């Protein structure tokens, strides 16, 4: 379980949010919403341990994440605004590189994952020739190659066409049905079972 207790974040000298508390259990998705600049990315980066909270604590399975360090980071996959794709490498090579530090990555799944995400035809091409939406799909493919219980996703649906949004939604639902947890920002609705969705708005 992921918990935030009385979290407060400040950027520069501007307070973004304070006294933010929630808990996210296996099989649950938290949809973070808010206007541009309200602090959604800051919240996600703080939950990953990449940005320090001004006050409060984040806990994973009851332990403060700053004490768990790498043991916590090994449990999560973070996909931010940037796709983190190396243009001269093929999609397969990119997935190898992106998941190389994951002890539990299943490289045998790379082929079927690229097929599922509609990228099989680009197997041998450098990734720089992919369109923006295809690059986003390649970035998201990492989720299916690694086996991380916690996905923290910043606008994963941005730039995706209608079919790709539906595909990605199915992937999110599958992860939840396997006991995974998801924290996600999106300016669009996420079509998952309302019983497993928590809404949080930063203002
Ligand atoms: N390194 C930084 N130093 C100072 N201020 C920052 C820094 N990073 C972000 N900010 C400020 O913090 C605020 C929140 O930024 P953040 O990226 O978390 O917002 P957001 O809700 O994700 O926005 P968007 O919907 O536009 O992606 C913004 O006003 C931004 O200018």
From TrEMBL:
Keywords: ATP-binding, Cytochrome c-type biogenesis, Membrane, Nucleotide-binding, Translocase, Transport. SMART domains: AAA (SM00382). Pfam families: ABC_tran. This is Cytochrome C biogenesis protein CcmA. InterPro entries: AAA+_ATPase, ABC_transporter-like_ATP-bd, ABC_transporter-like_CS, ABC_transptr_haem_export_CcmA, P-loop_NTPase. NCBIfam families: ccmA (TIGR01189), PRK13538.1 (NF010061). GO terms for biological process: cytochrome complex assembly. Residues 2-202 form the ABC transporter domain. GO terms for molecular function: ATP binding; ATP hydrolysis activity; transmembrane transporter activity.
